[in-house]
Fold this protein.
Amino acid sequence: MKRPTHLTVENVAEVLLKKGRITQDQYKDILIKGGAQRAKLQKYQESNSGRRYQQAANLITPAEIISSFNLLIPDGSGRLLSEDDITRAVAEEAGMAYQK
């Protein structure tokens, strides 16, 4: 299988599922609702910024979209999946060291 060359909500969710950071049900929800969640975040961002910052709406990352679902990590810790957790999982999958 060819590795993706850019990050999408779908391939980041797949990495999170593979790494055990989300459940199969959470994965399905992300795939189903990811596009609507992106639109919701863009609308929120646009309403809170001036005209000159409207381009920033296109810079919403897959990690931001997925973390906005407020998903519980399925390890029993009761922690919510954060952007840092997501970025760490993607870095591990890419064979890179994670640095905040």
Notes: Residues 24-47 form the longest helix (24 residues). Helices lie at 9-18, 24-47, 62-67, 83-93. The chain has one domain: 9-93. The mean pLDDT is 89.
